[in-house]
Amino acid sequence: MKSFIGENFFLHNDTARRLYDEVASRQPIVDYHNHLSAKEIFENKPAKNIAQLWLGADHYKWRLMRANGVEERLITGDAPDYDKFCAYAETLPYAIGNPLYHWSHMELRRYFDICAPLSIHTAVEIWKKANDKIAQGGFSPRELLLRARVTALCTTEDPADDLIWHRKLANESEFPVKVLPAFRPEKAGELWRGSDWRAYLQRLSSVSGVETSSFSTLKQALSLRMDAFAAAGCVASDFGMERFPFAPADDREIEAIFSRALSGGTVSAEATDQYLTALLRWLAGEYARRNWVMELHIGPVRARNKRMTALCGRDAGFDSVSDHPLADALGAFLDELNTSGELPKTVLFGLNHKDNLALMSLAGDFQNSSYPSNIQVGSAWWINDHRDGMIEQMRLLATQGLFGRFLGMTTDSRSFLSFARHEYFRRVLTNLIGGWVESGEYPDDPLLLERLVCDLCGRNAARFFGIRDQA
């Protein structure tokens, strides 16, 4: 019997163990999509206790706690931190097979040197030991990033966000981690939100200096904000959507839709799709011109539980997987961009794993000589971010394209402890490769394998996103 999360965790053959120990475990981390706060990184204030580090913004954990019948005041409410920690400790033993069970214990081991399984019976001891470690130092955001060997981050930011914290970090010569903003203009497309959308346009107008009174002026405002993002080191964009729209319309129709929405009029579902299509089409052309990577996150149903969202806010653990057709609309969109010569480097993320094959076959349709594997399917994402989801995604990717060009793992996280997930991924990755080698499906060539593993653990991502000194 193997020890619990021992040194050979997930490593089930000799080649896997060698590749992980000698290569993968030593690689720096390039995290190309996450929700960390540049302000928190700059201010560099350590957390007061492990509950703040673990539970402060982690909706993955919140969902588990709700499933265990924990009352909301112990999750997102005003209960004492210790009580929230105990509620999570009581929940965790029921999570056998859940990635959070592994992630949580990996974080306890890697950051706190705590090997005991967390439960309500060990909660007092672990609370004390973890907080003693925090009190000794080494748990500020910058220290945690350096301990995890992170070399570059792309943090998701709205066009209306002030990038002052990114600019300040860029001037911190003694802090070597690149903290780059990624451009996420989703709110500009959410005209169905009515007054919230109109309020957002006012905010964007204030930041950009352009009054967004038309679709044309909205594009001007977004373009100016892209200039500001580029000056702060931006290399990537992001856009999330429940389903992919493709309903082309001419400029006159789009301006009429924008005007109707701006005046508070009713906008049909068809008109909404036309507007989103035009916005995404224009954004993609801008990204191609700037050599930014376009990330499309397709498939989440946001805030499905309206009552609890009203109580706790968005991004609180009430999102689920959609089940819309994908291939036809997305394929037509990519084809139009490709025909006009405005298809940027692209990463396609699908939340519903049934869409993986469609995404991978579409990526294969639009490869060109501008960059190797210029259209990528991203790592197993969000609800699929676990061993089974990773293996399914990587096995299928290997059958449909160049697995050796895969961008590898990104955390998509708000937690400064979440980089243990890169270790989780690297163990799954090297075990998969090791299995192929030991079954005679790939040569046992040390130099070839070392290059492959290094590429998949971060070098491919650094090159793809143009983070030059990581290539």
Q: If you had to describe this structure to a student in words, what would you say it looks like?
A:
The protein has helices at residues 14-22, 38-43, 50-55, 59-67, 81-91, 99-112, 123-136, 141-147, 164-170, 195-208, 215-231, 251-262, 269-290, 306-312, 327-339, 356-365, 387-400, 420-438, 446-465; strands spanning 29-34, 150-157, 178-183, 236-241, 293-298, 300-301, 320-321, 346-350, 375-377. The chain is α/β, with parallel strands linked by helices and 471 residues long. Helix 10 (195-208) crosses helix 11. The chain is globular and about 70 Å long. The model has no long low-confidence stretch (mean pLDDT 96).
Largest sheet, if any?
Answer: 7 strands, parallel
Instruction: Output the structural class.
Output: alpha/beta
Shape: globular
Tell me the number of strands: 9
Helix content: 40-55%
How do the strands of the widest beta sheet line up side by side?
1-2-3-4-5-8-9
Helix count?
19
User: What is the element string, with H for helices and E for strands?
Assistant: HEHHHHHHHEHEHHEHHEEHEHEHEHHH
Report the mean per-residue pLDDT as an integer.
Answer: 96
Low confidence ranges:
none
What is Rg? 23 Å
Ends distance: 40 Å
Report a brief summary of the structure:
With 471 residues, the protein is an alpha/beta fold. It has 19 helices and nine strands.
Write the layout of secondary structure elements.
Layout: H1 14-22, E1 29-34, H2 38-43, H3 50-55, H4 59-67, H5 81-91, H6 99-112, H7 123-136, H8 141-147, E2 150-157, H9 164-170, E3 178-183, H10 195-208, H11 215-231, E4 236-241, H12 251-262, H13 269-290, E5 293-298, E6 300-301, H14 306-312, E7 320-321, H15 327-339, E8 346-350, H16 356-365, E9 375-377, H17 387-400, H18 420-438, H19 446-465
Parallel strand pairs: 1-2, 2-3, 3-4, 4-5, 5-8, 8-9
Antiparallel strand pairs: 6-7
Helix pairs in contact: 1-18, 10-11, 12-13, 16-17, 17-18
